[in-house]
Amino acid sequence: LKTELSIPDPPMGKSYHPLPYLRKKLVKYNCLVGDTINIAVQITSHLPRTITVDQIRLFLFAFDDYETVYRRSGATLEESQAYRILSLPEPNFEIQPGKNETSFHWIPMTVGQFVLASVQIQWKHTIFSYDSAVVRRAIQGVEVLPSEPTQTVELNPLFLIPGDEQEIRLVFNSGKDIITEGAVDFHCSDGLEIMPPPDPSSNTDADDTTSISDKDQHFDWAKECTVTLPPCQPGQKINLITKIKSKKVEKASSDGKIVKFVGKVQTLHARVTTSYHHALYTQLTHPNGSEPESDPMTTEFEAMVTTLDRPALTVDDTQAFEISDKTQVLVSVSLHCNTPLPFFLKEWNITFPAPLSLAPDGDKNDLLFVHPVTEGEILHFAFLCKRDVGATADPTFEQPFPRRPVLNVVLTDEFGKMFHQVLPLDLDTFYDKMTKEDQYKGTNIARTVLSCSSEEGSVGAPVNFAFDITLASTANVESPLLYNISCHQTDWILGGRVRGILPSEKKQFHLEFVGIPTQSGVIKKFPFIELRYSANKNRKQSGGGGNGGADLPPIRVHCRFPEQYRSLTYTNHMALACPSALEIGVGN
Hints:
This protein is mostly beta strands. The chain has 4 helices and 43 strands.
């Protein structure tokens, strides 16, 4: 009898290596733990008739043990040294004259390199042993690699909102693997702190899901922590639920201005290390199966979650408009959403320092309730306020922003978690303006009358305008008085002396200029005039006007305009074109 071993369909290919101590070549077939390997045996019989053998066995040796045996002088293979002995499922096998083929099926559970050392055929009381090191063919071997883990790790949420305390959830699923032990390492970067969760081994639900809540948490905040995972059977889940808090990514400067904090991105790293066996390990190893017990395989998973580089909502623009003779103010706030996932507006409120206060039914944003907010979206809020003339700001209001309104917005995610956003609104210029108006109430009032040369005219035809100005009461300010005449660009084009300086010793002035209507129809918007004091050089040098005149009292202008102007469309236009010449006079 002659035997020949081969692996016809290796799961992961093969490679060749020399064996110097045997002066032979090793053909190594690669596979994973849990793969089924078919080892083909070809038996050539030179006997004249068919025989029935009692059993055929294949001896597998670990590579290191095989080398140890053959490096000894005169050593032979012994059954006790074999790692695994494979046998055919049926004990009696007929061998006919000529070539005969059969195969062994092996599902390895141990990582390592193994050699198909020898084939043993027992025929009645005779045993034929065929050592692979003696035959002329290359020695056949198998390298078993760790199987791909089927475990999964999920870390939620996908991002953290800076400046808030949030709940994080790490879900570990054993998949099809048998977990013998494991650990989860949490590591926080600068700006983050985590509340270490308790040991999960003491809390296992009936549905093979181990849940950990934060109700029993009594640990201090930490930068890193380690949680031991209990052994898990296939399909079992472990939920680690704890809290993490983040520092704000923005800070206020000494003057109350919001300054973006430029630093490293805050990151929470979670590393899960497990030791595991293949799902068939319990079924195939002792005492249930014939595979030897082995050390578990190890694997490592990593998950991370980062904070946003800015808060969930940031103030894009804030404006205030005076209406109803300055007794009411309409405040417009635009918020920019920076979250990658949608959130919902649950509630909001706004507080104003004096002299503004929210009017009854002044919140005009009912349609934004439970509105989904997506990344890049601009939210527009409108609030109607009443102005208490003469009231002053409370210095203890909403520190450290005593002169700033504060908009509080509560967001909710898809899990119902609420996030509170505190957004100071920059209305400093408007509050300064109101303060000056209250300070100089009853003074610095100018009454003006705008007169028009005609009540109608053609589009493009010049119209003569005149402002008659009377200074009713002015503060004792030794500064030049500047005027500026402007208009709505869609209605008029202005010409003439539309800006200049008025004599400070007079109380009445007459200013003439020209306006050209630019569109046909009834025009009800007319040019208007603005008056202000100018910061002269003496005032700047004395230290009173170092801010460019921002501390000078404002001048309120009350103007009476014409009722309307009718601009007519011209049906034809005649013009005379003639060459122009430049006359140059030479003086004597």
